[in-house]
Amino acid sequence: MPATDSAPVIRFENVVKRFGDNTVLDNLNFEVRKGERVTLIGPSGSGKTTILRLVMTLEELTDGYIYIDGEPFTYEERGGKRVARKPKDVAKVATKIGMVFQQFNLFPNMTVMENIVEAPVHVLGKSKEEARQRAHELLELVGLSDKADAHPSRLSGGQQQRVAIARALAMDPEILLLDEVTSALDPELVGEVLSVLRNIAETTNITMLIVTHEMQFAQEVSHRVLMFDQGRIIEDAEPHVMFSNPREPRTKAFLQAVL
């Protein structure tokens, strides 16, 4: 378990997100510490994926602040006012964050190797040789050493998702966001992806924020589990407590429905 006195790597402060009249996140406050793996559970539409999309700057905050490593991310307070940070400052902080999506989002016209080295070369400024060497290491980690020259269309869904994980790790992120990474897979392919993620959890100190319906996986890899309902955290507990003796009736009802 990460030290409780370590500084938060991700901190949400009074975060509000609305889509029109619909408030998806309602004055949300929580933090994730360095090396901590936190899983968000709850019914569809409770705001879980929106949290990840805000951290990836795929959605814009309606109100409040997000801090990454103690630094204001997309908005900061200046002269008593909430102001947007400069795009270049946001982009610099964003290099610390990697995300694996439900859909694999691989470039179909590129080989597996090209998909993995593209961002390290063009965003981080790594040499092609350095990026390729790291890509080979990551393909070995995800069990796809023999697929470097294949195109995504020649791979199964599980293999494509493992490439997507390798691609996210190639940016050497401090934070890895996982958004329902097995939901688009056939049931028999789910295990191979979860096995790779378990291995990453056990062998690295990457901070993870996870949205999943795979409750067994959540129990095995998480340090904390947060139960969401209607844009609020209604329960925050260690996995063995959350899954065996939840406090809130809403949590009990949700887990009875999904387990």
UniProtKB/TrEMBL annotation:
<keyword id="KW-0813">Transport</keyword>
<keyword id="KW-0472">Membrane</keyword>
<dbReference type="InterPro" id="IPR027417">
    <property type="entry name" value="P-loop_NTPase"/>
</dbReference>
<dbReference type="InterPro" id="IPR030679">
    <property type="entry name" value="ABC_ATPase_HisP-typ"/>
</dbReference>
<keyword id="KW-0029">Amino-acid transport</keyword>
<protein>
    <submittedName>
        <fullName>Amino acid ABC transporter ATP-binding protein, PAAT family</fullName>
    </submittedName>
</protein>
<dbReference type="InterPro" id="IPR003439">
    <property type="entry name" value="ABC_transporter-like_ATP-bd"/>
</dbReference>
<dbReference type="InterPro" id="IPR050086">
    <property type="entry name" value="MetN_ABC_transporter-like"/>
</dbReference>
<dbReference type="InterPro" id="IPR017871">
    <property type="entry name" value="ABC_transporter-like_CS"/>
</dbReference>
<dbReference type="Pfam" id="PF00005">
    <property type="entry name" value="ABC_tran"/>
</dbReference>
<dbReference type="GO" id="GO:0016887">
    <property type="term" value="F:ATP hydrolysis activity"/>
</dbReference>
<dbReference type="GO" id="GO:0005886">
    <property type="term" value="C:plasma membrane"/>
</dbReference>
<dbReference type="GO" id="GO:0015424">
    <property type="term" value="F:ABC-type amino acid transporter activity"/>
</dbReference>
<dbReference type="GO" id="GO:0005524">
    <property type="term" value="F:ATP binding"/>
</dbReference>
<keyword id="KW-0547">Nucleotide-binding</keyword>
<keyword id="KW-0067">ATP-binding</keyword>
<feature type="domain" description="ABC transporter">
    <location>
        <begin position="10"/>
        <end position="255"/>
    </location>
</feature>
<dbReference type="InterPro" id="IPR014343">
    <property type="entry name" value="Ectoine_EhuA"/>
</dbReference>
<dbReference type="InterPro" id="IPR003593">
    <property type="entry name" value="AAA+_ATPase"/>
</dbReference>
<comment type="similarity">
    <text>Belongs to the ABC transporter superfamily.</text>
</comment>
<keyword id="KW-1003">Cell membrane</keyword>
